[in-house]
Design brief:
EC number: 2.3.1.234
CATH superfamily of the largest domain: ATPase, nucleotide binding domain
Distance between the termini: 18 Å
Order of helices and strands: EEEHEHEHEEEHHEEHHEHEH
CATH architecture of the largest domain: 2-Layer Sandwich
Structural class: alpha/beta
GO cellular component, one term: EKC/KEOPS complex
CATH topology of the largest domain: Nucleotidyltransferase, domain 5
Keywords: Acyltransferase, Metal-binding, Transferase, tRNA processing
Largest sheet: 7 strands, mixed
Helix content: 40-55%
Strand content: 15-25%
Catalytic activity: L-threonylcarbamoyladenylate + adenosine(37) in tRNA = N(6)-L-threonylcarbamoyladenosine(37) in tRNA + AMP + H(+)
Organism: Anaerosporomusa subterranea
Strand order of the largest sheet: 9-10-8-7-6-11-12
C-alpha cells in the first residue's frame, strides 16, 4: 500500500500525519509539548529538546497504522513563506523527514507552517476549490489575511493585512494566564466563556487591513485587576477577536474582490468565534471552516502537499 506523510514541529505540538493516495486520513498522531504550570511559553531550545524527545514515539505510533512505504513526504520548515522566516523548532521535523525520505528514496516537499495550516484547512473543509481565495490564519504566532492563488499543486500567498502588534492567540493566552487558566489557554478560555451572559465588551481596534489586539488586551487586564467576572471577560475576549476578524475579512473582500474565505489556525477552532463570523459574514462571503481538530497545529497540510505533488 502506498501513502504519503507529513511532519510538523511547531511551537507546541509534535505532529505526523499519513494520507492514502485518495486523500483519506490513515494516521494523525500528535504530542503536545509540556509547559510548566504558570508558564507563558517555551524557549526555542526547550521546543527543540521536547520535539527531539517526542518524535520517535510519534513516528512509531504513525507507522504502526500503515504497511508498506511512503510514496512522498512533506514537512514544514519555517513559520511563513518568506525568505528570512526561521524558527529552530522546525529543524527537528525537517531532519527526521529528510532522513526518512533519503532512506526510502522518495521525494521530500517543504512548505511553511502557514501554508500547512491553509492546506490542512482546504483538505478538511473540502475547499475553497477556486483558483483565488482569501485565507485568515489566526494563531499564537500569526494573525493575518492573505490572498491565496492556486497554480496547479502550488499555492502562492500574498499578504493583505493583519495584526500590527499582539497576535490573536497571544491575546487569548495572555488573558487566560491572567485568569489562572493553563497554558496554552484556548480551550480552557472557551470552556470558561460558555457560562457568560455577554455583559462585558472590549474595544475593537481595526483600521482597514490593520488590526491591533494590544489595546483590548490591556483593557481586559484592567478588568481582571478590578475584580471582573472571569467568565464574562473570557467571553469578551472571544467576541473581540471575532469582531476584529469579521472587519478584517470585510476589508479583505473590499480590497481583493474575492469572496471565498478559508478560516485556519488554532484560534479558529473556537465555536463562539465560528458562530459569530457565520452570522456576520454569510451574506457577503463563502466561509470554509476546517473541522475543529484540523484548525490547531497538525501535519495534515504537509501530507496533503506531498499528495498533490
Amino acid at each position: 500500500m502506498s501513502w504519503v506523510m507529513g511532519f510538523d514541529t511547531s511551537c507546541y505540538t509534535t505532529s505526523i500525519a499519513i494520507l492514502d493516495m485518495q486523500g483519506t486520513l490513515l494516521a494523525d498522531c500528535r504530542q503536545m509539548l509540556t509547559v510548566k504550570p504558570g508558564g507563558r511559553g517555551l524557549a526555542q531550545s526547550e521546543m527543540v529538546f521536547q520535539h527531539t524527545r517526542n518524535m520517535p514515539a510519534v513516528l512509531e505510533e504513525a507507522l504502526a497504522k500503515v504497511g508498506g512505504a511512503p510514496a512522498a513526504i512533506g514537512v514544514t520548515n519555517c513559520p511563513r513563506p518568506l525568505p528570512n522566516s526561521y524558527m529552530p523548532a522546525f529543524l527537528v521535523g525537517a531532519g527526521f523527514a529528510q532522513a526518512l525520505a533519503l532512506s526510502h528514496r522518495v521525494p521530500l516537499f517543504s512548505l511553511s507552517h502557514q501554508e500547512n495550516h491553509i492546506l490542512a484547512g482546504v483538505w478538511s473543509a473540502g475547499g475553497p476549490l477556486s483558483d483565488r481565495f482569501l485565507a485568515v490564519h489566526a494563531s499564537g504566532g500569526t494573525s493575518e489575511i492573505v490572498l491565496v492563488e492556486r497554480k496547479g499543486s502550488t499555492f502562492d500567498l500574498s499578504l493583505l493585512g493583519g495584526s500590527i502588534d499582539l497576535q490573536a492567540g497571544q491575546f487569548v493566552d495572555r488573558i487566560g494566564v491572567a485568569l489562572n487558566l493553563p497554558f496554552p489557554a484556548g480551550r480552557h478560555l472557551e470552556a470558561l466563556a460558555r457560562t457568560a451572559t455577554g455583559s462585558v465588551r472590549l474595544p475593537v481596534s481595526v483600521d482597514k487591513l490593520s488590526v491591533s489586539f494590544s489595546g483590548p488586551a490591556s483593557h481586559a487586564t484592567r478588568l481582571i485587576a478590578a475584580g471582573g467576572e472571569p467568565a464574562e471577560i473570557a467571553h469578551a475576549v472571544e467576541t473581540c477577536i471575532a469582531e476584529t476578524i469579521s472587519r478584517l475579512i470585510q476589508a479583505g473582500i473590499n480590497e481583493s474582490g474575492v469572496t471565498d474565505i478559508l478560516l485556519a489556525g488554532g484560534v479558529m477552532a473556537n465555536q463562539h468565534i465560528r458562530r459569530y463570523l457565520r452570522e456576520r459574514l454569510s451574506q457577503i462571503g463563502n466561509l470554509f471552516f476546517p473541522e475543529p481538530a484540523y484548525s490547531p497545529d497538525n501535519a495534515v497540510g504537509a501530507a496533503f502537499l506531498s499528495l498533490l505533488k
